[in-house]
Amino acid sequence: MLSEHRPTRRSVFKAVGGISAAMALGGVGTLATASPAGAAGDGSGLRIVDHDESDTRMCYYRFATDAIGWNPGPAVNVLLPDGYHTSGRTYPVLYLLHGGAEDFMSWDTKRDEGGIRAYTAGKPIIVVMPDGGPAGWYSNPVSSHTGPRNWETFHMEQLIPWIEANFRTYAEYAGRAVAGFSMGGFGALKYAAKYPDRFASVSAHSGPASLRRDLGAVVHWANVSSAAMELGGGMVYGVPWDEARVTADNPMQNIERYRDKRIFLVAGNSPRLDDPFSLFNEPEVLAGQREFRGALDNAGIRYEAYEDEGGHFVRAQRARDDIDGIIERLRKA
Fold first, then answer.
1. Predicted confidence band of residue 89 (pLDDT cuts 50, 70, 90)
2. CB contact at 8 A, 115 and 127
């Protein structure tokens, strides 16, 4: 599993070589509801520029949107449950976010034991996997020299309404979960707190939960990685930091917003010496998750957490267990 991530992760590490260890943290068929042509006027602000619905489970869409200055625009994979097209049922939905230097296909192509298709086989849930940029940090950045990269706007104001207008999902708090790996785990924790009425369940697989610890290591990494890989020298949080943004995005400073949610956390406790990216960032992830768990404990907020052998990668069995827990928490199909 770890070897599948290593080439991409090393390329990221080299791209920002010279960062101190303190900063080094990763960090066509027919729908059963509406066809792509029916998406016009759904209020999402998205326009489909490419799509493929030939797979009975995995649908692909690419959009034009003013929020993201890509040409072609950002894409999303929508994984449907078995029997979706004939069941007539309405389903809960999981928004599943990828890590840094990954994309909307990563949960399908880069995960162990068959990836998200295998993890959800036979399970009554829709899984939405959007682009989040190679180093977008699920944020609207302070500055960009590569055009708009407003990933938070794309996800929260455009994609969710589009999904709910075009698929049979429960468009309510009890019908939505958000989860992610690494940068995507941070994005899940951030979205769950900034939009507390949107998601009943949140999961972070090796995702950082504390932005300000260790002299702001995660904020520094977000700034440096976004400048190098995403924003052409622009930054997510800026220098000096936009303190209000850091506070709004920091799970540690928004503990009460997790109350009554299902919370699932995983971090590695023994990264390998021959994997420098994992060696530098997973200890920071683990320390941040422990700090976060302590704050949840002090607030009397329940959670499920694991510290597992190994470094910075998705553990297939934890992903399976998480999906089962999400389905149990959300409104039933």
1. very high
2. no
